Amino acid sequence: MADTWLPTLITNTPQEGFELAITLSRRGVKYTQPDVNVLKSLRPEYANSADSLTAASHVIAINFQTVAAANGYWRK
Amino acid sequence: MADTWLPTLITNTPQEGFELAITLSRRGVKYTQPDVNVLKSLRPEYANSADSLTAASHVIAINFQTVAAANGYWRK
Amino acid sequence: MADTWLPTLITNTPQEGFELAITLSRRGVKYTQPDVNVLKSLRPEYANSADSLTAASHVIAINFQTVAAANGYWRK
Amino acid sequence: MADTWLPTLITNTPQEGFELAITLSRRGVKYTQPDVNVLKSLRPEYANSADSLTAASHVIAINFQTVAAANGYWRK
Amino acid sequence: MADTWLPTLITNTPQEGFELAITLSRRGVKYTQPDVNVLKSLRPEYANSADSLTAASHVIAINFQTVAAANGYWRK
Amino acid sequence: MADTWLPTLITNTPQEGFELAITLSRRGVKYTQPDVNVLKSLRPEYANSADSLTAASHVIAINFQTVAAANGYWRK
User: Fold this and answer.
1) Comparing C-alpha atoms, which of B63, D10, D71, D9 is closest to residue C17?
2) CA–CA separation, C29 vs C42, rounded Å?
3) Are D and C neighbours with ≥3 CB pairs closer than 8 A?
4) What is the pTM for the complete model shown?
């Protein structure tokens, strides 16, 4: 992937940081399966499964740990 | 999601921090599947499965690590 | 849940900290499924499955990381 | 459990720390299923499954993070 | 593996760090199954499964935590 | 296990650290199932399964976090 999609881990707010964690989670999928059509075809599989949604939230939680630490937890 | 749902990671007590961790876990699901009706329809699937409940508790535990660190573990 | 069940993460000993980690893990389940009767009915499902017990120990391990860090690992 | 099984997280060597991580992982199981006979009966289920053994090693790895941090990674 | 594939964890940008996390994740697989032909034959199995892709993204997220910490989160 | 297999977490390079993480992951399995013949018999089960290989890489990633932190991320 030649484009720049991650110039920094710094965000203005915790919520933007959480959204960046979602981006990181999706990019982890996309690097492994770059075909957008395949990804779209898989969406019903996980978007309608409680366990798959929990697994997605799990990955987001891990990436949010990283983003939150990078931002000093937006303490100030 | 245009609304502000995460203005800060700081909470007054560990228990409020744990409840924020639950919010984060649910938001991770909701960003992936925003349709509230689908989410409601999936509830019986995981709320009556021991393994699904353990998986939910797992995600909460990870988010609680983040919130607890942000709050300096409420040491004072 | 209106009651106060988590006033602090500080414990006197590592063992009490481990037991607090178990409480946190169980609360993560209980917030998701508050019906005690359902929880009781699910017990045979996980208490007799090696993989479910490993998953339970996994969540405890993550919560113990949090509690141990909060207590400075009880080093003194 | 009334007995004291975890007086400290400090160990003399990394290897003893790894073995303490195993103890923590097993205790996480035992708090959830205290019946030793049940635990013994489950052993063939996980001790002969590659995925179950990987899951066991996973929990040990998480507990080892905690023990290693407690010991300052035995750097000196 | 005699070749040097990991001389440093330091990268110039977060995005390069994320790509290094992908490399680490793949190497973890390759050390366990060094046969490239087997790895290729398994690709359809996980590249077309939502849950497998989420699991891959999960491992990347964990390795990215390590790389990000190593780089001080590229804060400057 | 009476032999000394983990005298230190310090390694000269990140790559040696990654290989130590693999050793830790395997030892976690071996402590749970010490019978080498059983372990060998299980190899085809996980070495030819994409999900099992991802799970193996997952455990390595967690142990690598520990080893990397122990070594100050080999920053100098």
Assistant:
1) D9
2) 12
3) yes
4) 0.97
Instruction: Please name the helix (run of DSSP H) or strand (run of DSSP E) that holds residue C40, with its range, or none.
Output: helix C36-47
Between the alpha carbon of residue A12 and those of residues B65, D14, F70, the distances in Å are 21, 41, 32
* Planar angle of CA F54, C65, B27, nearest 5 degrees: 65
Residue to mutate among F57, F59, F73, with most E CBs inside 10 A, is F57
Chains with at least 3 CB pairs less than 8 angstroms from chain D: C, F
The DSSP 8-state label assigned to residue A63 in this structure reads: H
Main-chain dihedrals φ then ψ at residue B33, nearest 5 degrees: -130, 90
Give the integer Cα–Cα distance in Å for B46 and B55. 9
Residues in F closer than 8 angstroms to D56, CB to CB, are 28-29, 32
Min Cα distance E33 → chain A (Å) is: 18
As a whole number of Å, the CA-based R_g of chain B is: 14
- Do the interacting molecules here have an ipTM over 0.90? yes
Q: Where are the alpha helices (DSSP H) in E1-76?
A: 14-32, 36-47, 50-70
Average pLDDT over residues E61-73: 98
Count the neighbouring beta carbons within 10 Å of the beta carbon of residue D49: 18
The single-letter code of the amino acid at E39 is: L
Contact between E46 and F50 under an 8 Å Cβ cutoff? The reply is yes
Summarize pLDDT for F46-55 with one digit per residue, the tens.
999 999 999 9
State the Cα torsion D75-E3-E5-E7 to the nearest 10°.
50
Subunit contact E52:F49, Cβ cutoff 8 A: no
Mutation to test the B interface, candidates C18, C24, C37, C66, most B Cβ within 10 Å: C66
